[in-house]
Predict the structure.
Amino acid sequence: MARALVLVDVQRDFCPGGSLATERGNEVAGLIGAYQLSHASDYGVVVATQDWHIDPGAHFSDTPDFIDSWPVHCVADSDGAQIQEKVRTDLIDEFFRKGEHTAAYSGFEGTSAGDGTPLADWLRSRGIDSLDIAGIATDHCVRATALDALKQGFRVRILTRLCSAVAEKSGDAALEEMHAAGAQLV
Ligand SMILES: [Zn+2]
């Protein structure tokens, strides 16, 4: 069996300069790009998830509460939905898009840009049983992706230095929650 690197939502809108920026977004994107080069041989496959909204209903709001509603972000095909340029997209095997018509925090709600295969099926069909997860945001989509991965029976490690949170306090709480659910923090 083999390990996959799962890069969650490292998209321009979640980085400084974007519409829903996390403070460490660009820093984390740079660290991820370097990590992809230095750790390429550790992984059977590398995948990336993308928030990819067309009309996600109440997920978007002009008066967002930053809990359940958010400023407009990651509109399908927009610049803001693109993977941050420091990430090595040439070293990513497949992209999984989620949230066209709904809020979708977990990467496991995503389907492949190629043929629409759900993420869990795509990974299992390649013999993957362990995941290293990194990306944005620690307290939302990384958290939801990791908790779903554990429910689906994958072994999970969180690459904590390569994750960026919306807020430090909720990011730390999310790491504790992922750890309590069975994820290893590295
Ligand atoms: Zn979203």
